[in-house]
Write the structure tokens for this entry.
Amino acid sequence: MGELPLAPIERILKKAGAGRVSKKAAEEFASVLEDIASELAAECAALAKHAGRKTVMAKDVRLAKKKGF
């Protein structure tokens, strides 16, 4: 299992309209989110490095999101 706790994942799914959420569904959703977050983090780090920084900043996250995340 990944690093994301399941309770917030279940809340996100319920807020989106799900009446009930199985544990397996929450685990799978968390896994998908972790994959997306990992790709986004790598893009953010690359943008910071390209800008000559070691620190990822909010503008890197916004730019990475615009690029397709």
User: Anything to note?
Assistant: The mean pLDDT is 95. The two ends are 23 Å apart (CA to CA). The first helix runs from residue 6 to 15. The CA atoms of residues 57 and 69 lie 16 Å apart.
